[in-house]
Every structure is written in structure tokens, then in C-alpha cells.
Amino acid sequence: LKQTITEKDAKLKELKDAYLRSLADAENIRTRAKTEVDNTKTFAIQKFAKDLLDTVDILELAIKHVPQEHLADKVANKSLADLYEGVDMTKSNLLRTLERHGVESFDPMDQPYDPNTSHALYQAPIPGKTPGHVFAVEKRGYVLKGRVLRSAQVGVVLDTSDN
Q: What's the pLDDT band for 69 if we cut at 50, 70, 90?
């Protein structure tokens, strides 16, 4: 009789352990599923936002290539000044819309080069600048809720010291 009780206690302990492990597994699955759903909601616009960044780049390029002396004479160049203003307003509105949805730009100028957030397009020796720091930003970088959406495209100061 004592042996039967001991066997039953061992079996009960084994079943209780299996039950608790099953509960823990179910809770882990629920937690993982909730995390996946939250991430899916948070990053659902990632591909769309990344596609819009090309449009932002084109608008910035258009604004950058308008000679400032042409804009100074608003009477003679009224159409150009109006077009410039419209493109600038469109770019600003697009950036505000992206920011509302968690997309933020960053500019790593004069900061140490970080391969996690920037892509070095070239290196050049620049006197007076710290080696390994960014000295030119060709394209700004963007993050979506802390995740890099597009790396900044940069030029990095080359270390010319002899080791």
C-alpha cells in the first residue's frame, strides 16, 4: 500500500510539473503572439515609408539646385519663386506626415561614423577634422520607431596618420 501511494505521489508530481510547464508554454506563446502583432502594427508602413523617402530625396534635390540669385528677384522670376515655394511646402508637408507616423530623419554630420546607421560612400583626408567622423552627408538617414529605415549615405574622414 505504501509503495502504491509513493508511486501515485511520484505520478502526481510528474503530472503537476507537466501541467505547469504547459501553462508556462501557453503564456510564452501568448506573449510572443502579442509582441508579433504589436510589431506588425508598428512597422506595417515600413515598406511604404521607405518608398516615399525617394520622393523626399527628389524634392530636396530640386530645392537644392535652384540658384539663390534667381530667387532673390521675385519680380523677374515669379514663376520660379512660386514653384520653389510649392516644392518646399510639399517636401515639408511630406516630412511632417512621415513624422506623424513615426518616421524621423537623422543627420550624422560631424559625429563618429556608425556602420549601424550610416553607409560610407567614400573616405577622404580632411585636415582639421577628426578621423573616423562624418564630414559630408549625401543623403539623410531615417528611422521608424527606433529601427533604421534607411542608412545615411556619408563621407568619412580618412585617418592619414602612420601607425
A: confident
